[in-house]
Specification:
Elements lengths: L1 H19 L4 H18 L3 E5 L7 E4 L5 H7 L5 E5 L8 H7 L3 E3 L6 H14 L4 E3 L10 E2 L5 H8 L4 E10 L9 H4 L8 H9 L4 E7 L13 H23 L4 E2 L3
Parallel strand pairs: 1-8, 2-5, 2-7, 3-4, 3-5, 6-9
Antiparallel strand pairs: 7-8
Helix pairs in contact: 1-2, 2-3, 5-6
């Protein structure tokens, strides 16, 4: 039933996007917000939000799944920074491009600066930018080192950076061997579409998001990018501790 609903949402909002082809970043962000808010309800994913989505600057978060994008976009109109490989995913790549996603090509010189230009345009349009400094997804039991490139670009254009932390749980028993770490989180080399269909069969999926009450107060003007990345990771880690203490979960933070 959920798969039918989700297909219907893609058809409905994809058709709207194809017909209207919104020209401004604000219009594209509004479309993504409506699409993801509708999809979130259709997925029957329960959501607990602590704090407020920042109205400007960058929002950084740990990264667990493609579902993260749906969760954050369902909370507020925003622009995402994502790895360029997403453009190659059938249907989804076209939709994310049309939604105004700023792409980063890892390993290519000047990519971060190009992304910085896109983030500046988003800021000028009054839209917060969301990105995941780990650069890839995990199962939620570890937090990888943060990459500094996009952080440097945000601070260079003098925009605030706010931390957030996201955690998934399963509030119902889905049978032996089923867990949020393996069946809600999407990580490693797992096939995305196989994961989608598996996720659609889960009961009691729950996302908890906590936003920091204020932007990160970096200790320098980012001449030392590694220090800024560590401070950003610490800010997300602090939120993780607050969320995970309530559930007894453990978080491993790898050394840089």
């Amino acid at each position: 039933m959920r798969s039918i609903k989700l297909t219907g949402y893609f058809v409905r909002f994809g058709t709207e996007l194809l017909v209207t082809q919104p020209k401004t970043r604000q219009a594209r962000a509004e479309w993504l917000y409506r699409f993801c808010a509708t999809a979130l309800r259709g997925l029957d994913l329960q959501l607990t939000v602590e704090g407020e989505f920042p109205q400007r600057g960058a929002l950084i978060s740990n990264h667990l799944s493609y579902i993260d994008i749906i969760v954050y976009a369902a909370l507020s109109p925003c622009v995402f920074c994502s790895k360029a490989e997403l453009q190659q995913v059938p249907v989804l790549g076209w939709m994310t491009t049309m939604a105004g996603t700023v792409y980063v090509e890892r390993g290519r010189g000047g990519s971060a600066a190009k992304a910085g230009s896109g983030m500046k345009s988003a800021a000028e349009a009054g839209l917060p930018v969301v990105f995941f400094p780990e650069g890839t997804t995990t199962n939620g039991r570890e937090m990888l080192p943060f990459h500094s490139g996009l952080l440097a670009q945000v601070i260079e254009i003098d925009e605030p950076v706010t931390a957030a932390f996201l955690r998934y749980t399963l509030d119902e028993d889905n049978g032996p061997g089923i867990s949020a770490e393996d069946d809600v989180c999407w990580w490693g080399d797992r096939n995305m579409w196989a994961h989608v269909f598996r996720f659609l069969g889960l009961r009691g999926a729950h996302a908890t998001v906590r936003f920091a009450p204020a932007p990160i107060a970096f200790s320098s003007n980012l001449l030392h990018r590694k220090a800024a990345a560590e401070e950003a990771r610490d800010a997300v880690r602090e939120l993780a501790g607050e969320v995970n203490r309530a559930s007894g979960a453990e978080l491993v933070v790898q050394d840089l």
